[in-house]
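User: Some background: our group keeps a shared notebook of sequences we're curious about, and every so often someone picks one and asks for a predicted structure to add to the entry. Today it's my turn. The entry only has the sequence so far, pasted here. Could you supply the structure so I can complete it?
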Amino acid sequence: MQVKTLLKLSVVAAVATIAMKTLAWSITGSVGLLSDAMESFVNLASALFAIAMVTVAERPADDDHPFGHTKAEYFSSGFEGLLIVGAAAGIIWAAAHRFADPQPLESLGLGLALALLSSALNGLLAWRMMIASREHRSIVLEADARHLFTDVWTSVGVVAGLMLVPITGWLWLDPVLAIGVALNILREGGHLALRSIDGLMDSAVEPQVREQIDRTLAQFAHNAIRFDHLVTRRAGQRRFVDVHMHMPSGWTLRRAAALRTDVEQALMSEVPGLRASIQLLPMEVEAHVDDPRDST
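Assistant: Of course. Here's the predicted structure to add to the notebook entry:
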């Protein structure tokens, strides 16, 4: 399933869960369920913004952006992280007022049933989105899936806690649960924001992708061929590798270029979406680079 399709399903799911959780809050008066509904509004805004950023990321390279627009995905995860922080602040504010003035809860049975139904819907969608995020290497889908999983667990926690209220008579448990939800989603929002910043800083490819690259290059390396000064970076769904390939100085340019083409094709076959840049050098020539951390 395509990234945009899953994000559109996320929008539909967010609207449905907002309706169910808001209804659950209105019939029970629980600030814990209100906090759960507020998080679903974040889900909706995040999914809409993610669709916009994925649309930008799909644009082909142009004169102003020769490496494409794939980094636009990181703005989506960063935006979602900021929204989560804002939602957490609103939840804590509402819970603090309720903690000072506890209110009895009504019609808990129906309200909790609606909350559980919405959680099941979010859980199913999050599971599918997490699988797709690995297939497409999409931080947008991963961010949305992680947020939905957080929503599921917080909803389950709220429901479990609220079930104790009529048993124990502890009305203060409702706002305490709401604050717990806020702190949990605040942690997730911070994680998403850091992931977004890390992506914008041209991080190296994932360890497993680096292993694929090294394994592919090893198939071509022998006494007459060696590779060095290999550096990588990632941008959204795209991966980039720059490497120097040394070969005998007596080879013709045609032969050297043909081998480079074979290496590039092998790399792109092993790592879909990879863009390889290979510089040809004679075996006895060493390139001078500015970064002393370049691997050899």
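Suggested note for the entry: Residues 207-282 form a domain with the Alpha-Beta Plaits fold (CATH 3.30.70.1350). The longest strand covers residues 226-235.
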